[in-house]
Amino acid sequence: MKFTESVQFDHPIIQAPMAGVTTPEFVAASANAGVLGSIGAGYLSAEATREFIQHVRKLTDKPFAVNLFVPEEMNMDEKLVRRAYEQLQPIGEQLGMPSWETPFSAPCFNEQVQVVIEEGVPVCSFTFGLPSDDNVLKLKANHVFLIGTATSVEEAVLAEKCGMDAVVVQGKEAGGHRGSFIGEALIPLKELVTDVVEQVQIPVIAAGGIADKEQMKSMIDLGAQAVQIGTALLATKESGAHPLYKQSVLQASEGCTELTKAFSGKSARGIRNQFMIEMKEDKPIAPYPIQNDLTKKIRSEAAAQNRPEFMSMWAGERVHETEGGSVEKVVKSFF
Ligand SMILES: Cc1cc2nc3c(=O)[nH]c(=O)nc-3n(C[C@H](O)[C@H](O)[C@H](O)COP(=O)(O)O)c2cc1C
User: What's the pLDDT tens digit per position in 51-65?
Assistant: First the structure.
């Protein structure tokens, strides 16, 4: 698979960027297994992004991508934020936290773009929106291959117009956050790939519920140039997922995932647990990224206390097909 002269990899597979899960060892193992590794840098500071890139470089000389979260305009409704926080308190109490600090994160997207350029990373992918013209021009002037994320034909067309060199189309089956930036499309991957390849000229990368070589091949037959796999790699030894999250993935049954906004304010697919059930009934939820900041301490405390019922365990619809082992073993199973 060839994106540019400097970005070539053996198999038409991208290891999905998964913020919080993609360790340097995971990205390097993916690159070394012949697929395009991706750093999920969405929650990192600019300096942490730089250190991560340098760490991966020590483990592989293969190309890899950095994935960034495009920041969104957001109106802070203080009353709603207070009500959303109060709603979370019974869950905090179950973790021994009657109250907790909720420092709000500041976006550092422009600084991360600068790091990608300074570190000479050859591929940069985006989710939750598209980068500004300035950033596109800057990255392209530095020969960075750009990949957008779309969940509808409309978003894919905009990604191409904005200068993306390829587009990941994310079907409704996909694990983790939805990359939607116009409305909230939930389109099955087959349908989405079929429609998008007719409407854009740039390479289409299919993502969502691709768990084996047959599904990969069916996407390529529909016109996708590559696939992006996330959940299939979640339980590997190199993955940074919490051990109990990996266990839930390996024990998952069909139909165990659902979409929720309760962890972050943005729609994401994960394994149903007590947090998702308790937060279901029309509870007030702050917009992304505020809700994410409000629940941060709950998630970290749940991880520290080994309480998967309160962790965010993002996973796609085919999670019940996931197996453990190494990244190399999973990649090989696609061939
Ligand atoms: C744990 C997890 C974290 C994710 N984090 C990101 C992310 O940081 N950036 C991104 O663009 N997509 C993210 N995604 C979505 C994946 O890139 C990809 O679209 C998805 O995993 C494909 O569906 P699958 O999980 O069924 O293979 C995440 C997915 C999972 C499962």
Answer: 999 999 999 999 999
